[in-house]
UniProtKB/TrEMBL annotation:
Keywords: Exocytosis, Protein transport, Transport. This is Exocyst complex component Sec8. Component of the exocyst complex involved in the docking of exocytic vesicles with fusion sites on the plasma membrane. GO terms for biological process: Golgi to plasma membrane transport; protein targeting to membrane; protein transport; vesicle docking involved in exocytosis; vesicle tethering involved in exocytosis. One of its GO terms (cellular component) is exocyst. Belongs to the SEC8 family. Residues 263-275 have a biased composition (Polar residues). Residues 16-151 form the Exocyst complex component Sec8 N-terminal domain. Transmembrane segments: none annotated. It comes from the Eukaryota. The lineage of its organism: Eukaryota, Viridiplantae, Streptophyta, Embryophyta, Tracheophyta. The keyword tRNA processing does not apply. Residues 255-303 are annotated as: Disordered. It comes from Raphanus sativus. The gene is LOC108861964.
Length: 1055
């Protein structure tokens, strides 16, 4: 870009730009040096030409200059004119300023002569203005009492205190102290201070117990529990993951109002589990909800419970802006917390904290007592309403079922009847130490839990408010000015005390916690009917320990019955100022009678009271303690260590568990020691698999099962003590097993069947038997068909090889056999129940057992008991099976060493067969109600195999047999087959095959020798060589048997 490119050259003279472009830029440098150009021309060969070129370039430049001047000429002229005008105006201004200075000098001289008079006039105007202002103030102060009364009526307490403090300051001014007309105003303000204090205190008291307009509870605490509120209440944040103390911990700021933390929004009391989260609906909506209830109780939806962070709560709408109001406006705390903060701030501004704390302490216990009574009355009204609404059918409460959690087995009471209408008399032996109402899951337990849950839930919500107020007061006490009214001269009666408790009138967080737990403990003791022994030595030690923290004990709190309670030591007995004591005497102390000595009336709500209700009380107390602990600040966290939970746990450990063990041990002893405990009773002819339909479980074992379920029901209610309760059950089961073992031994002692099942070879063969698959205990692995058949044959051979069986070796009493059958089924029932109970044992018991010296967990211990019970049940069935097989051998052994030489056709079986079949029928009918069909098959299923083998083997010992003798034996087998066919569930096909084999075997005796050999040649595997040989050895009249018969038989069988 050239140096001449920016020149304003007209478009019709563009050639000038070309000419300028030819000019060397050295002519346009800032410091032009002409010498090089002169030398160039002098030394040039064509000087004329160079000079002519320079002249042409000069003409071009001059022409460009003319164009530039022509283009900027108008602007230059205007600029010169403007400059001239500026110079003219400046000159005129200078002249006028000089004139003004001269005039001011003249004015100064004139005013100086009247200075004194002007000063007097100015002073008079100031005085008159001040008098007018004082008159306005006097007029305004005269209206202050009515204004404060209006603000009090509108519950604008903070604004009323602001007006009061401002008016008090005005009255202390020097000019107004001597005004006589204001003395009445001073007197009225003094009265209004007391009235304002009591109004604030009343409102604070109402909101502490959730009875106020801005309380977090949706409805009155007197409302019945069964009534569903129309809107969702603001939750009490007892389940909040953050400690509730944070809401007030953030108040400890650096401003004079101590509200720096109100703006950070770090605390929310809404519990997500109760649908009480706060959102940002505007103030008008909240006010509309507040005004919608005319009974003084504000019911607002959870979505309307939180004001927007930039909106002011309605109770501060008439207040003058200050730091506290600004902090409240920016705070994210719930509405009821902000209101409590405002009331505490009002008390601090009035300097009445100590008096308020003392009165709150004085009223705390009677109010809590009244609240608990009201809750109980509400429950009673609910109960009456529900009774009137329900029909009068369903009167089976006394005969209801008690269920253990996770169990489907029914617990029947002593007068229960199953569905078939037959009395389950076994439960008469249960001798449960508790009534049906008091049993686990009973109506009394459920009623006590519901009642205590409701009361403790109310107490938790109340304590939440006390935590807010308590932390605020403790923080303000640290400022050492809470009992001095703000902006007022110090009153000697309200000098701050160095002790924070003294400064707050004895009211600290620990005080309401102790009183609340004390009242709850008294209620629990009433529910449990606690005797003086209920206050154990440990409890007394706790009382002594905690009482050291209190200034003194109030004598009026001593219980009438002499029971020493843990918390009865900290009523409003702290040392307070004279003014605080006067305030208490003025009326608050007289408003509540000494109701703490009265009962709560829980008996009207609970169907029954007693020590066993501790089981239903334990869990609500545990949850209550967890909620309280989550609310407490860290520095107060130790307050719950010696609280209600400790008392309840000590009561359970020191009183309930020992009582329970003694009572249930007595019940177990009565159940198993009764003569009828092991007496089989059946009211049906067939077996039913469920107790509800009449399964004839032995009364003693049924009672033990019911008692064990009941004890484990207590373990479900009190998981922490489940280990001890499970040990109780193990002790009871062990005693019961020994008693069952004794009954078993009484039936089988010195009997052959008992001795045989104890032999290892017979036990092994019985385990291989296919029929053993139905036994309660798993006796072994699965076996093949050939192994099962071989074991049955071998087992029969062992029985037949025994010496001659005598009648004394057998169990001849059918009642003992029926007892063994019933005992087996009952033991199996109890074993199944034990297994289910073991799975339902609380984890606490399992973990506690795992940490104990014995590393076996409770379910495994209970499972071992189930195995023992099943093993004994199996032994009973094995004895029954062997006994019937021995009975068969005993009766059929009469076939040996005799001659079957009959002279006529057999019409009736032999007497011993008749005896055997009648015995089988009789015993089957006796056992039928007590054992299932498959077990009946096991008991009687071995008879046919044993009878068949015994009949075939008896031929070897027979001397002679003829055709009618063969018919007689066949008639015997037919009679036995008919008897076995009458038994349900017995394998009829197997019975027929075994007895057909006997008939076939004996009918071979009717064949001629040659025909017999031909049959043997074709059916060499049907019988053993010994059995075929016995066919030839026996004497059969009319059959010709050659001398070499055995040799020829051997030759046939060897091929």
């Amino acid at each position: 870009m050239g140096i001449f490119d920016g020149l304003p050259v007209p478009s019709d003279k563009t050639y000038l730009r070309e000419e300028l472009a030819r000019i060397d830029e050295s002519w346009a440098v800032p410091r032009f040096d002409s010498l090089p150009h002169v030398v160039h021309i002098i030394t040039s060969k064509d000087r004329e030409a160079d000079i002519l070129l320079l002249r042409e370039q000069s003409d071009v430049v001059e022409e460009v200059v003319d164009e530039v001047v022509h283009a900027y000429h108008g602007g230059f002229n205007k600029a010169i004119q403007n400059y001239s005008q500026i110079l003219r105006l400046f000159s005129e201004s200078t002249d006028k300023i000089g004139d003004l200075k001269h005039e001011l000098g003249e004015a100064k001289k004139s005013l100086g002569t009247r200075n004194k008079q002007l000063h007097q006039l100015w002073y008079r105007s100031v005085t008159l203005r001040h008098i007018i202002s004082l008159l306005d103030q006097i007029e305004g102060i005269a209206k202050v009492p009515s204004r404060i009364e209006k603000l009090i009526a509108d519950k604008q307490f903070y604004a009323a205190i602001q007006v009061y403090l401002q008016s008090s300051l005005m009255l202390e001014r020097e000019g107004l102290q001597t005004v006589g007309a204001l003395q009445d105003v001073r007197s009225e303000l003094a009265k209004l201070r007391g009235a304002l204090f009591f109004k604030i205190l009343d409102d604070l008291h109402a909101h502490l117990y959730n009875r106020g307009e801005y309380s977090s509870v949706a409805s009155s605490i007197y409302e019945r529990d069964d009534e569903v509120p129309t809107t969702t209440a603001v939750a009490a944040s007892r389940m909040s993951s953050q400690p509730l103390s944070r809401r007030t911990r953030t108040l400890k700021g650096d401003s004079q109002f101590g509200v720096r933390g109100l703006t950070n929004g770090s605390h929310r009391t809404g519990s997500t589990e109760e649908g009480s989260s706060f959102d940002g609906h505007d103030e008008e909506d909240s006010v509309e909800h507040d005004e919608a209830t005319g009974d003084g109780q504000t019911i607002r939806n959870g979505t309307d419970s939180k004001l927007l962070s930039y909106q002011l709560p309605p109770w501060l709408s008439d207040s003058s802006p200050d730091e506290f109001i600004e902090a409240v406006r920016k705070s994210d705390d719930p509405l009821h917390v902000k209101y409590l903060q405002t009331l505490v701030q009002c008390l601090c501004m009035l300097g009445k904290v100590a008096a308020a704390g003392a009165i709150i302490c004085q009223r705390l216990r009677p109010t809590i007592h009244e609240i608990i009574i009201s809750k109980i009355k509400a429950h009673m009204e609910t109960k009456n309403l529900s009774k009137s609404a329900c029909s009068q059918g369903d009167r089976t409460g006394a005969a209801g079922l008690h269920f253990i959690k996770g169990q489907s087995e029914a617990y029947r009471l002593s007068k229960d009847k199953p569905q078939n209408g037959i009395s389950n008399s076994g439960t008469h032996l249960a001798v449960s130490p508790v009534s049906p109402l008091m049993a686990p899951g009973g109506k009394a337990q459920a009623a006590a839990k519901d009642l205590l849950d409701s009361i403790l839930d109310t107490i938790v919500k109340i304590f939440e408010n006390h935590v807010v107020v308590g932390e605020l007061l403790e923080f303000r006490a640290s400022q050492h000015d809470i009992n001095t009214p703000k902006s007022l001269p110090t009153d000697v009666n309200w000098n701050p005390d160095s002790d924070a408790s003294q400064a707050t009138g004895g009211y600290t967080i620990s005080f309401p916690l102790t009183v609340l737990q004390s009242e709850c403990q008294q209620l629990i003791c009433e529910i449990l009917r606690a005797t003086p022994e209920a206050a154990s030595a440990d409890t007394a030690a706790q009382t002594a320990k905690l009482s050291k923290k209190a200034p003194k004990k109030d004598k009026r709190d001593a219980p009438e019955d002499g029971v020493t309670f843990t918390f009865r030591f900290t009523d409003a007995t702290v040392s307070i100022s004279n003014q605080g004591a006067d305030l208490i005497r003025q009326g608050w102390g007289k408003r509540a009678p000494n109701s703490s000595q009265e009962g709560y009336g829980s008996a009207a709500v609970l169907p029954e009271q007693g020590i066993y209700l501790a089981a239903s009380i334990y869990r609500p107390v545990l949850q209550f303690t967890d909620k309280i602990t989550s609310m407490l600040p860290k520095k107060h966290s130790q307050l719950v260590n010696d609280g209600l939970l400790t008392f309840t746990e000590n009561f359970v450990k020191d009183h309930l568990l020992p009582t329970m063990f003694v009572d249930y041990r007595k019940g177990v002893q009565q159940a198993i020691s009764s003569a009828a405990a092991f007496r089989p009773r059946a009211h049906t002819t067939t077996y039913t698999p469920t107790v509800e339909k009449g399964r004839p479980i032995l009364q003693g074992l049924l009672a033990i099962d019911l008692l064990a379920k009941e004890v484990l029901g207590w373990a479900q209610a009190m998981p922490k003590f489940a280990t001890d309760l499970v040990k109780y059950v193990q002790t009871f089961l062990e005693r019961t097993f020994e008693r069952c073992r004794t009954s078993y031994m009484e039936a089988v002692l010195e009997k052959l069947s008992y001795r045989l099942i104890g032999r290892h070879d017979i036990e092994r063969l019985m385990r291989l038997d296919a029929a053993s698959a139905c036994l309660p205990s798993q006796l072994g692995h699965s076996v093949s068909h050939s192994e099962a058949v071989g074991s049955e044959v071998e087992l029969t051979e062992l029985f037949l090889s025994l010496p001659s069986i005598k009648q004394d070796n057998l169990i001849r009493d059918d009642n003992k056999l029926i007892l063994l059958a019933s005992l087996s089924d009952s033991l199996e029932y109890v074993a199944d129940s034990i297994e289910r109970l073991g799975q339902a044992v609380p984890r606490a018991a399992s973990q506690a057992e795992g940490n104990s010296r014995n590393q076996a967990t409770s379910p495994r211990n209970l499972a071992s008991f189930a195995d023992e019970y099943r093993k004994l049940a199996t032994d009973c069935l094995k004895v029954l099976r062997v006994e019937m097989q021995l009975e068969t051998v005993f009766h059929l052994q009469e076939m040996t060493n005799r001659e079957y030489l009959e002279d006529e056709d057999a019409e009736e079986p032999d007497d011993f067969v008749i005896s055997l079949t009648s015995q089988i029928t009789r015993r089957d009918e006796g056992m039928a109600p007590f054992i299932s069909g498959e077990k009946r098959n096991y008991v009687f299923g071995g008879i046919c195999g044993t009878a068949a083998n015994a009949s075939i083997k008896a031929l070897a010992d027979m001397r002679s047999i003829n055709l009618f003798g063969v018919q007689q034996i066949c008639r015997n087998t037919i009679a036995l087959e008919q008897a076995m066919a009458a038994i349900p569930y017995v394998d009829g096909e197997s019975v027929q095959q075994n007895l057909d084999r006997v008939r076939t075997y004996y009918e071979l005796l009717n064949m001629p020798f040659e025909a017999l050999l031909a049959f043997i040649a074709e059916h060499d595997q049907m019988f053993t060589p010994t059995e075929y040989s016995n066919l030839l050895k026996v004497n059969v009249p009319g059959r010709d048997t050659p001398p070499d018969a055995q040799i020829r038989l051997s030759e046939i069988l060897s091929h």
